[in-house]
Specification:
The protein is of the alpha/beta class. Helices cover about 35% and strands about 10% of the residues. The protein contains eleven helices and nine strands. This is Protein xylosyltransferase.
Length: about 400
């Protein structure tokens, strides 16, 4: 856990290296609110108001039986995701009282459906935990895999979970009615979000869903979505048949699946309109609404108006990446070109200012970092770590006999 002074230290380092990231300017033009409490919470506070909207998120239960190297990597990845979800749950309880949280805890076909230490922590943080297997897990072939490290092959079940929410609706209908939650419009987010303000369902009718953009392309980003689950129920048979025909070969996993099915003529990342237009649209409900990214899908690498943000999304760089940046700065591995243009550039851009590149940390070439990126990211990391410390303290206190 980094000290609260980390942001001041980063700003001083940027100034001493004549970086375009001027923290004084960032503070003046885009002040960042302090949203995580400074003091421990002994018990979960009751919701500030009666929830009116179901909020679904999902995580995958860590797998066992992998090789030693794969197990260590996957376990670390899973624990980071579970940590992010603890932060999301606590921040929602404190700042988004209109939400009733539901955690879809995904199990593989080999895992018995059972609660564990994490699911009990999620319950202590106010979530209703749904033990679940993807209804279409057997259709996901070995071709649709993710490879986070060379030689590591696994199906990332979590990324497909939002496509299965409509299948949960019939079993939850009575409960949602008893809780006076909207019967079919829900919020879905990835686990890696922080709530800064309350979230209510869109005032406009929602025939399909509402989603923001990738930010670096015109494609939709499915990390934060308002979904009409009745529509997804009606469309499910055709949607699944379409995915099976394609062997789940989608350029951007479930995002491209959604985009192809509901509006194939919209431009997709990695392909032009000609390619997209060849996808047959069989949906009876067409298109979707666009979310205000700065409010509902705020990202630190963009120049977002921080006080407008309701949901921050760690889309792209994660808390572990920001920790890597700080460690590189402390160790001296952070290159000068990550601060500013170098003197004596040869005109070909080889020494051009490129934040993060060549630091030894992950670098996404498609993500163009705004001038205040480091200021915002370090602030969010400190909020994340403070929320996580509070959540762990709260869960440990609740678990004491």
């Amino acid at each position: 856990m980094y000290p609260e002074s980390a942001l001041r230290w980063v700003c001083a380092a940027a100034a001493s290296n004549h970086s375009p990231m001027n923290c004084t300017h960032c503070d003046q033009t885009n002040p960042l609110p302090d949203i995580a409490p400074l003091h421990p919470i002994s018990r979960l506070p009751p919701p500030a108001s009666s929830p009116s909207l179901a909020w679904f998120t999902s995580v995958t239960k860590p797998e066992e039986g992998l090789s030693v190297d794969n197990r260590a990597y996957r376990l670390a990845l899973s624990l980071r995701t579970l940590d992010s979800l603890r932060v999301a749950l606590l921040s929602a309880r404190l700042h988004a009282p209109s939400l009733a949280p539901y955690v879809v805890y995904l199990h593989t076909e080999e895992q018995p459906l059972a609660h564990d230490a994490f699911s009990r922590d999620a319950q202590r943080l106010g979530a209703r935990v749904l033990l679940h297997r993807l209804t279409f897990a057997s259709r996901l072939t070995g071709r649709r895999k993710t490879r986070p490290v060379p030689g590591l092959k696994h199906i990332n079940y979590g990324t497909w979970a939002r496509m299965d929410l409509a299948q949960l609706l019939p079993a939850l209908a009575g409960e949602m009615a008893a809780r006076r939650l909207h019967p079919h419009v829900v919020l879905y987010t990835n686990a890696d979000v922080i709530f800064q303000a309350d979230v209510r369902r869109p005032a406009a009718p929602l025939p399909t869903f509402a989603a923001g953009s990738e930010g670096f392309s015109a494609s939709l980003n499915s990390g934060v979505m308002f979904m009409n689950l009745s529509t997804f129920q009606a469309e499910w048979g055709g949607m699944l048949a379409h995915a099976v025909r394609k062997d789940f070969r989608f350029s951007m996993a479930e995002q491209a699946w959604l985009q192809e099915w509901f509006d194939p003529e919209r431009r997709m990342s990695g392909g032009g309109r000609r390619r997209a237009a060849r996808v047959a649209n069989r949906s009876s409900h067409r298109g979707w609404l666009s979310l205000d990214d700065e409010a509902f899908n705020a990202r630190a690498w963009r120049h977002a108006a921080a006080r407008r943000a309701r949901i921050w999304h760690w889309h792209g760089y994660k808390p572990a990446d920001v920790r890597c940046w700080l460690d590189a700065m402390v160790s001296g591995a952070w290159p000068r070109r990550a601060w500013r243009d170098l003197d004596g550039c040869d005109g070909r851009g080889r020494c051009r200012y490129r934040p993060v590149k060549d630091s030894g940390c992950r670098w996404f070439s498609r993500i163009e970092l705004a001038p205040c990126y480091l200021h915002t990211y370090v602030h969010l990391l400190l909020q994340h770590e403070r929320f996580l410390w509070l959540a762990n303290h709260l869960c440990n206190a609740s678990a004491d006999p």
